Amino acid sequence: MTFALAALMSFTACNDFLDIQPVGKVIPQTGTEYRSLLTYAYSIVPTDRGLTTFRSDELILDKATATSTDLDSYLDIWRWQDDNPDESTTSFNWRSFYEVSYVANTILETYTTMTDATEAERSQMAGEAYMLRAYMHFVLVNLNAEPYTHCDPDTTKALPLKLNSDVNAVLSRNTVAEVYASILSDIDQAEKLLNVDKWDAGENYRFNTISAEALRARVYLYMGDWAKAYASAV
Predict the structure, then answer these.
(1) What is the largest CA-CA distance in the chain?
(2) From 68's CA, which of 94, 122, 155, 207 has a CA 20 to 30 Å away?
(3) Worst-scoring range by mean pLDDT, 29-33, 80-84, 134-138, 217-221?
(4) What was the pLDDT predicted at 133?
(5) Is 90 exceeded by the pLDDT of residue 177?
């Protein structure tokens, strides 16, 4: 009897231990906590697309007038020196794209259990998560793969799609067509969930109901499907 009681107490202690949240960490449960998580995801969206300007005819890096900091950071990008760039060269920050996708995936897997939020609020935040994941894959595929209109999308390898929050999963590269299909699917799902037509100033960085059509138009534009791009834009 004594042994059984001790065993029962030990199991209770284990359960209590598992109920403890890590110090300084918040496992999102309430609508407010989910919104904070989304705000964090928005804040870390990389601005790497601007670096591609150095490889276009829109910008000339003038060594005579450029600062030493500019030369250290951008010269090897400007001259397409990728094999052995200077260690001070700014890097394309692909890792942050996947971090944003991780946050979006976490929200999509758990938002139905969100507390202290209306159904409309839960739906809106899930829609924003779908949009974030679609947007991250869209930027990644255009920075790191062949253009859709300049390859065979069905056979050309692009980058790994990340559609869940499992950090231990071994990923493999998906084709350009698969990545674009996933992007369009996420936009479709987002469109069903988004319900805020217009955000107030200061919150208008968030996706709203018109965002889905806007991003869809951009995706079709990059796919060279002019009719669908036009239909989504008007």
Answers:
(1) 87
(2) 94
(3) 80-84
(4) 98
(5) yes
Q: Provide mean pLDDT across the span 208-217.
A: 97
Look at the block and give the residue holding tokens 């964090």. 40
Query: pLDDT category, 25, cuts 50, 70, 90?
Result: low
Task: Return d(Cα 219, Cα 234) in angstroms, integer.
Answer: 15
How far is it, in rounded angstroms, from Cα 33 to Cα 40? 11
CB–CB of 33/26 below 8 Å?
A: yes
> Nearest-5° angle of CA 18, CA 21, CA 23?
135
Please report where in the chains the tokens 């790191």 appear, as a residue: 144
Model confidence pTM above 0.85: no
CA–CA distance from 172 to each of 141, 160, 162 (Å)?
A: 14, 5, 10
Cα distance between residue 190 and residue 138, in whole Å: 15
Q: What angle do CA 202, 204, 205 make, to 5 degrees?
A: 100
